[in-house]
Amino acid sequence: MKVLLTGATGYIGSAVTDHLAAAGHQVVALTRGPEPQPGRTAWHAQVVGDTADPASLAGVVTPEIEAVIHLAPPSGDVDVDTAVIEALATPLRGTGRPFVYTSGVWVLGATGEAQEVGEDTPTDPIGIVGYRPRIEQRVLAEAAEGVRAVVVRPGIVYGRGGGIPAILVDRAREQGVPEYYGEEGVRWPMVHVDDLADLFVAAVERAEAGTVWHGVGESAVPVRDLARAAGRAAGVLVAPQLVPVEQAAQVFGELFAGALALDQSVSGAAARTVLGWRPGRPSVLAELVSGSYRPVEVFGAPEGPQTEAEVAAIRRLVAEVEHAQQNELVDRFLGVFRREDPVWTTGHGNRLSGFEEIAAFTRKVLPGAMAESTAVYDVERVLFLRPDVAAVNVRQQPVLPDGTRITDRPEGRPFYILVKEDGTWRVGAAQNTVVVD
Ligand SMILES: NC(=O)c1ccc[n+]([C@@H]2O[C@H](COP(=O)([O-])OP(=O)(O)OC[C@H]3O[C@@H](n4cnc5c(N)ncnc54)[C@H](OP(=O)(O)O)[C@@H]3O)[C@@H](O)[C@H]2O)c1
Prior knowledge:
binds NADP nicotinamide-adenine-dinucleotide phosphate
């Protein structure tokens, strides 16, 4: 399909562009100016229009446009946004072609006691999205005019190092303490930007006219947990701090602060069941702790998706070291080592040679070892010595069981030689060095 995409240069629009192109569609990007946009090689064509000026959109939906995805944000003026819908949808009338409008879960308001509310829940918008349900209704009314009108409501979007979680990371870095807002117990529905892009592709290809879909991968993530993970991404291992909404308003403005403090539990089950959507990217906590919000230095391999996938697999292995250690899971800890002749020199200089020696040591020391303190492990550098052999520098920081840094205890600098065998990375050799200065 030839798809006109507004907001194509944005956070979500960039991912939607990639996924539409990968699914064989042609993206016609609507941009505010005629300047060529660097890096937009996935675009089939570029047209100029400004969603703050509906008259500028006349003629952008030509007869060859087979679908429209409207991702550019609202203008703040209900009449302008209504006129934008009319300008973009009217040329599709009577064609049965899809018009996908992007709303958001904030139109539902606080979901209260209800768990995982669905698309049939009445809207109750918070201030920042005040008139958006009216725009949704205006869009859906196009179904009666022969347009395959569809509304997608994303949760809070994360991934590719961006979105609102990036604000949490930046704030933690600036303030030296991770923050969350409003009241204790606030939860956000979350979606990975690449999973969301898959949903847009599914919506444009097969959602029925007049339907609404929640783009939500995780229905209710406690924002306190998000804040802690954002602190980890920022290198700030201290307990998250609750910031009252009035105080947050001084930083973010009243409307955005109200949105950050909103407690929601929203279901994305309908899109899975009906559209076959399969959100499967890493969870927001994993993404913050060891994904795109914390890039690693990579050497010895060409940039590209293959290397990214290998680095992600290596980070998962190191996350497994951390998880197994923190939870005293002996078998899982041993599972990270290759069977054949691994060698591990501990932070105390104790050299263990061979799997049996490592296993005996682990069985002896790990159970009970984490009662008072544990450690977090962050991959800092990966050098591919060969495509299947990597030298990995890790930062190990001692923490209390609640994740806060034990300041008077030194860090470690584990160094791993990893080997990929039968498609799986494992530790072939490991050495830990305590940082003394
Ligand atoms: N991010 C989230 O967590 C989230 C959650 C739920 C819903 N949403 C909704 O999803 C949509 C996209 O969000 P996003 O996070 O991708 O936003 P974003 O990164 O700010 O991108 C906005 C895009 O819209 C374009 N745009 C802005 N004003 C325009 C105008 N007057 N005319 C034409 N294009 C214009 C921008 O183009 P330029 O390059 O020219 O600036 C950019 O491509 C929005 O409607 C937002 O409300 C987002």
